[in-house]
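SEVERITY: medium
COMPONENT: batch folding queue
REPORTER: lab tech (J.R.)

DESCRIPTION
The queue accepted two submissions in a row. Attaching both inputs and their returned C-alpha cells so the on-call engineer can compare them side by side.

ATTACHMENT 1
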Amino acid sequence: MAPGLLLVTQVGRSFQDEFPDVKPVLDRGRHLVISAADKPRKRSNHCWRVEALHAGTVVALPEQVATRVDPTIAGLLAELDPASYQTDVTWFASLPTRHSHSTSFVTAVEYAEQRMVALGYQTRRQPITVGTKPSQNLIGERAGSGDGVVLVTAHLDSINLAGGASAPAPGADDNASGSAGVLELGRVLATKNWQHDLRLILFGGEEEGLYGSKQYVAALPPAERARIRAVLNLDMIASKNSTTPTVLLEGAPLSSGLVDDLATAAATYTGLAVETSLNPFASDHVPFITAGIPAVLAIEGSDSANSHIHSATDTLNFLNWPLAAEILRMNTAALAGWLQPVTARPRPAGSIVSWGPNRIDIFVT
C-alpha cells in the first residue's frame, strides 16, 4: 500500500465535479491518485469510488504488438457498416429519454428487439426491478455448434442526474453508442457460423446502480455461468476526448487474457492507442467479474474529459464516428477469436465410389 495516497475511480468527471477543490497527485482520467489528506467523508457512490492505493495498482499503456492479419477476420471487418451503426445511434438518441422507468425506454427495447429478430436472434425480455419499479433486460441468442457462449453487452438506459427521471436524457454517447454497437456487432457476426453461442444483452438500470446486470448474473444457474467464455461490455465508445484516438480496456486479473486479445486486435486492425486497467468499476462488466466470470469493458479513453454525459447535452453533435468505427473493428476481431469460426470440411473434387468395405475411389472431374 502506498502511504498517504488514495486511488479514485470515477465515471466521467463525477468525483472531480463533486470535489472541485481536490487536486489530484496524478490524473489519468477514469483513475486519479489523491492525497489521503483529501479523503472525502464517504468512500463511494455509484459514480465514483475511493480506496487505498495498493502496490502494483496501475493503469498502463501496454506495448501493442500486431499479429499477422487474418484474411477471415479482415473479411469480417469489411462487413461493418458505419451508416447502419449511425442510424441506430441516431434513433436511440432521438428519444426524449431512455430512463429505465420511462415508456420511451420500452420503446427503445422494442426497436432493439425488432432489429435482433430480423438478424435471426431468438429474443426474450427479462423482468428486473430498478429501485422499487419494474424495468427489463433484452436478450438475443444465436446458437453455435459447441458448448460455450460469448456475451456482448451494453446498457440501454440513459439518465439526467440534475434534471431527474423526466428530464431530457438523449444519452448519445452514454450509451446509445454502446447499445448500437451491440446491434452492429450482432449484425456482422450473424453472417458467419461459430463454434460457440453468441448472446447479445441490453441492460436496464445501469445508471441507477447496475441493476440489470446484477440481476441477470444472480439468476444464472451454475451450469450456465460455467458456459460463459467471455463477456465484452460496451459503454461510451464514441467521444474522442484526447488528441490520439484511444480506448480503455478495463477488466480484472481473471479477464486479463481478454484484455490482451483486445489490445492485440487494436494493434493489428486499428490505429487506436490502448490503455488498460485491472481495477473494474461502475459498468455492467463488474457483476460478471464479481461472480468469477471473465469480463472486460471497452470504453473511450479519457472519458473524464467528456462533460456531457448524464445530462441533456449528451447529443449526437459531440460524437466522433471514426473513433466508434475503430473500436468496433477491434471488438469484431477479438470476438471472432473468442467465438471460433466453424471450419468447413474439405470436399473431394469429383464423384466418390465405394467398391466395398474400406475400398473407396475418388474420381476427379
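ATTACHMENT 2
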Amino acid sequence: MGYQVKYIARWLDVLMITESKRSRLRDLLSMLKVGEEAKYVSGEHISRALDISREAVWKYISMLRGYGYRIDAKPRVGYMLVQRPDKLYPWEIMLELGKCDMVKEIIYYEQVESTQDVALRLAEQDRDSILVVAERQSRGRGRTSRLWISPDGGIWFSLIIKPRVNVRDVTLLSLATALAVCNTINSRFNLAARIKWPNDVIINYKKVAGILIDMSIEHDAINYAVVGIGVNANVSIDSIERMISNTDKHYYGSTSLMHELGKAVDRVRLLASLLRELEHIYSRLAYRDEILAAIRSVMMLGPVRVIEGEGNDAFIDGVAIGVDDDGSLLVKSYGMIKKVTSGYVHVRYVR
C-alpha cells in the first residue's frame, strides 16, 4: 500500500511530492548508506536502478542537499551520503517504517501550532490513517487543555485511526497507547519507563512522554480517534523546566531520552518503532485480559496524592494498588479502596 506525502516547508508553502518522486527519494536514500556502510554509488548505477536520466539523478541529489543531507560527489566515482539531517522527513519515516496499514499518509511540518488540531480537522473530513508530525509546536495541547511544551528535538505527532474496539472499552485506549510507548522505550533503550496514570509515561518519576486522545463517538459507534503523542527524545530539559515550572501547578518534573542515556537517539527509528508497536497493540485491543495484564505490568504504583479538580483543596492521600478492569486507578486510602476515573484528576506519586 503506497503513501501520500505532503511536505510543509518553513515558510508554510505546501509542496506536494508525487508517488513516483516519493518512491525515488526513498529508494535513493536506501542506496546511499552512512557510517561504516558508506560507499560511493555511481550516477550510472542510480540511473539504471531508478530508471531515470543522469540529469534527474543530479536533481534528486540537489533536492536532498536542499533538505540538509550532506552528500559528497566525485567525478567518475559517484555519490556518497556523509550525513543525514536530524529531521522527521516523511520519506525517512517511510523508509524505516516499511509496510504499515495504520499509516497511509504523512503530513510533515517544520513548525505548527498543534498537530492534534490539524489531525482533528482532517478527521472531521472523514480522513483516516494519517500521521501528522512536526519538528516543534507553538501551541501543543496536553490533557485538560494544558500547554505541552514542544521544542526542537522531540517527537510530536498525531495519528488518525478508526479503532476496532467496543465503545465500552474506549477508556483502555489511552492506557494501551501509553503501554506502546513504554514497550518501545524499554525495548530499544532498556530504560525502566512506566505508565503514570492516566496518560503519561515516566522514567525515574519524571515525565518523558504524554498522550492526548480526542474521540468522536456517536450512537455507540466510534467515528474516529485522534491519538496525540509527544516524546521528549533529544530535548533540552533546561528549556522545558524554564518554560513550564512556573505555569503549571501540577508539574512534577521532566526528563528526556537523551538526558537518561547521555546521548542523542535516532528519532526516525524511534518513531517507526513506536508506530509498529502501536499497530500491534491496537490489533490486540479486543483481548481485554491480555492488554490489561500488560498495562498492569508497567503501571506505576505506590504512595500517591490524588488531586480532584483544578484547585489543590480536594485531595486524597493513599496508595495506588492497581488498575481496575475499566481502566480506572485503584487507590487504597484509610482502609477503603477508591476508584479514580478520568476527568479533572491529577495523580502525584509520593517518593
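NOTES FROM REPORTER
The chain has a mean pLDDT of 86.
No errors were logged for either attachment.
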